Every structure is written in C-alpha cells, then in structure tokens.
Amino acid sequence: MRSVCYTATVALLACHSAGFAQTKIPCSQTVMHALPSRAALIIDAKPAGLQIVGTDQEAIHVSCMAGSAETVSEVSLHFSPTPNGGKLSIEGPHLHHGNNNLEVKVEVPRRTNLQVRMMAGQVTVNEVKGDKDIDLGAGQITIASIHDGDYRSVNASVGVGEVQAQAFGTDKGGFFRSFSRKNPGGEYGLHAHVTTGQIVLSGNAQRESNGAKPD
Length: 215
Fold this sequence. Notes:
Elements: H1 2-16, H2 18-22, E1 25-26, E2 31-34, E3 40-45, E4 48-55, E5 59-65, H3 69-74, E6 76-82, E7 85-91, E8 103-109, E9 113-126, E10 132-146, E11 151-165, E12 170-182, E13 188-203, E14 213-214
Parallel strand pairs: 3-7, 3-9, 4-8, 4-9, 9-10, 10-13, 11-13
Antiparallel strand pairs: 1-6, 2-5, 5-8, 6-7, 11-12, 12-14
C-alpha cells in the first residue's frame, strides 16, 4: 500500500510540474517537481538570498519572495530534468541582491548532491547530505549540520574574507584564506569558494581527524 501511495505521489508531482519543466514560472508562484533521493541538482542563480533545506520528500519545492512587485514580475524559475537529477535556474534582468531583497527557498531530498553557482548574495545549506560544490562571487556561504565522518574531502577558500570552519576548529581571515581536510572513511566531497566574503562551516565534525590543513 505504501509503495502504491508513493508511486501515485510521484506521478502527481510530475504531472503538476510538467509545465514547470518546460517553461519559466514567475517568482510569485510556488513550484514542485519530483526529484529522487541522491539526485544531482545544479542551481544557477542571479544574486539572491538562497536557502537550500533538506526534507523527507522526494521532490524539489521552490518558493521565493521579493521586496517589490517589479522584482517579482522580473524573476522567473525554470527547472530542467536531467538524466541524474535536474537543473534549477533563477533568472531575471539586472538583479542586485540587497536592492531587490530576493529570497529563494529550495527544499530538496535530504540526500542530494548540490552544485551552486551565483554571482552575489547568501547561500545557506541545512540538513542536506551529499556532495556539495558551491561557488559564489561575493557574499556568504553557510553550510550547517556537518556531521562526523560525512566528508571524505573538504576544501573551503576565499579570495578576500574569512573561513569560519567551527566544525573543524578553524577560523581564518584575511587574503587568500583556505581550509582543507581529508578523511578516507567519508562519503561526500565538499568544495566551497567565495571570491570576496565569508564561508561558515558549522556542525559536529571530528576536529581530531587527520589531514586538516588550514592556510
């Protein structure tokens, strides 16, 4: 019975979001699309406050808010399924985070591999297990809920700014700062880079693990 209900739910999500996969949806609408656990999700975003949260649903759920009706009308969301997951594009002309107050929340399965590219703003990831590759031009990356032994490799770097890796007992500020860690027993890889700004890694990862190399 559970299997039948799950299949029906996934089918309903796919039907509900068929248009979303093919067309751009305005920021004023909430959108959903089936996304299996352990899928790879690419997010290509204009400057925004981007919050990525893990849930127990095998679906991607996207909602956004903006500071003005003009921004709402200009911003659009586009999801394209791929063989191993999907790509979410957050688009809009001349978006400047801080002026538009654009906030986007992306809910994904707890086990999702993420690749995020954004020019400026804030990226927050919480309760998501999987590979993470996040590159931000200016602003802040925060990755929370880092647990013991999750990551086989960690590399976080800033051109100008600060790396706060409290989960690994490291806090470095200044120019060209980076932190790296190896753990052969880990499952995932984590790469985070900000050209100008800050990276925060929080959680309860083992500080005594071998291979930690703050620079």
